[in-house]
Amino acid sequence: MSGHGSGWGNPAPAGLLALAVACFTFYALLGGKVEHTAIPLLGCWLLGGALVQFTVAVIELMEGATTGGNVFLFFSAFFMLTGGLEFIFKYLVIANGWPALDARIDGFAWCALWFGLWMWTPAYFKSPMTLLLAVLCLDVAVPIVALQDLGAIGHDYAGVAGNFLGLAGIFGIYTAAAIVLNTEYGKAVLPMPGGFIRPKNIGA
User: Fold this and answer.
1) Cα separation of 119 and 199, whole Å?
2) C-beta separation of 67 from 204 below 8 A
3) What does the DSSP assignment read for 64-77?
4) CB count, 10 Å around CB of 96?
5) Which listed residue, of 13, 137, 146, 179, carries a Cα 20 to 30 Å from 173's Cα?
6) b/e code 68-93 from CB counts within 10 Å (16+ = b)
7) Max CA distance (Å), the chain
8) With contact defined as beta carbons under 8 Å apart, do 161 and 23 qualify?
């Protein structure tokens, strides 16, 4: 996370809250809590999240937070912006009876995000435990989404992915709240347990 320099506040809480919005809405969709007619509305929420996370990414990178800045950058572009546009477009395809799309291309793209996320996860061993747990939950959900889009597994696992996304959202909200409250009051209002590795300067 940034916030170690001068003149900039830490934008990570906004990015984590945007992530939580995506996780909660995916949890609802994959878990069958809402009808598929909610898909274009989900797309709109993801587009809003893209704006937040792109802003967070730029500030984090300017502050020298390599891991957090890059993660928020690709989350904003692919999870949020691309995901939001695709949900809206796919809904229009179905609603207007346009030729079916070969959505397996999404599976190949999700595989790149899956492999990248797994390979970057060890960087979060230095982060607060709640943030690491959010990332580990995504490490479970993202491969399931990728394999489903590829057609390698059925949609029986959609609920599993949804549950882990819901947990990721909860951990993201807690981490965001802890950063805001602990910074504002200058003390540990909400506990932020350290990660597996304790660096001199904790970054995310």
Assistant:
1) 20
2) yes
3) T-HHHHHHHHHIII
4) 7
5) 146
6) bbbbbbbbbebbbbebbebbbebbee
7) 58
8) no
